[in-house]
Amino acid sequence: MTIGGPAQPETQDEEAAVARLRMAGSEHMWARLGASSMEIIDLFRRHMGLRLLPLVDEADRPVGAIYEEDVRNILFNPFGHALLSNPGVDLAFGQRAQTCPVAEMNRGISGLLAVHARGGGKEAIIVTRGGRYAGFVPNSALIAAANTQELERLRAREAELEELRRISAGFEQDIQRLSGTLGDMAAMLQRSATGTAERSEDNNDHALQVLTAAAQTGAMMDDVARASAALVQSLGRLDRETEQARTVAVEAVARVDASATQAQALDQATESIETITASIEMLARSVNLLSLNASIEAARAGDAGRGFAVVANEVRALALQTGEAANGIRAHAMTVRKTVDSVIGAQAGLEQVIASVKQIAEGVTESVSAQRALSLQLAAGADQAVTASKEIEARIVQISGNARAATAGAQELARTAHDLGDSSTLLSRRVGLFLDEIAVRDSAAA
Question: Is the pTM of this model over 0.70?
């Protein structure tokens, strides 16, 4: 019987190692299955140190072995010796093959040890090459090889442990450097985050101050817009009234032959003109005062109020022009009034005077129309300035919110940096414990 498994491919070095373990000349120490007892005994006598004799079949495949111990027991038995001395009796040793482990040489020493452990061989393990008998390896040689292999494994293990110690020492140094670097980075990051938070708070304070100034500017622009709208309305009324005066003058020309009652109506119309011009002068003074105050506030606002200062100066110039026009209107109205008095006193030359009044009214209408157009532009500019001021205020509110968010982010970054420093310290501590545990296990393994 053969015990073992199919040969597994290994390198030629493993087969050569097995060949060196074979008993010298064992590849020629075998008997054919069915050999006579005397042939087998003769082989044992020729090889005095032989502990077993492998048996092979016709194809040179090992089928078992005859052990020297069994042959010796028969030889030392008086009855057995007598039987062997009788030529007519054959104990048929060649038919009494016992189990012996078998393995391919290319499986190497480790493969032989595994097969021998499963087979339970007493003296040796038979080796084959391609399934054909190639000798046998005594147990003593196999054990010596196993001891050598184990010694080499232990030496390799010791070398690995030494390399592991070296790597662990380097790893510990790297971790210490890394931990120090992480700690420095965490400290730097925390300082940077603290500075960022402080700057964000300062930006938030500045944004709030700008927001207050923008709100004040917006309020002033609202006042300017309302004043401009009032000026436009007054000029509109003045335009309508001067138009009415022109109509009256036209009617006066048509009624040049009318009675003194019509002249009295013209006198009343001139009085209305004087009243209106007085109102215009009062309005011009008010607008002038408002524009002066606006210029002062714009100067206080600095660069932010520069554009508003230009608008205020334009309003002031417009007010001055309006006052001059009102003075001119008053002068003309006084002339008309004198003329009307003259007409009341004497109708001579009334047609020419009324024609002059008509011409003056038309001039006033043109002047008022021009002033009204400028006032409309001023009102539109004031409205745009109010809209821009509100938009600036909204942007500043957004900037303030972003500053608060940046402050919160910087504070969170500072906390993260602190956690990073703690993690670095914890990492260094855990690596130290890990390396200590490895050292303890290495000592235990050694």
Answer: no
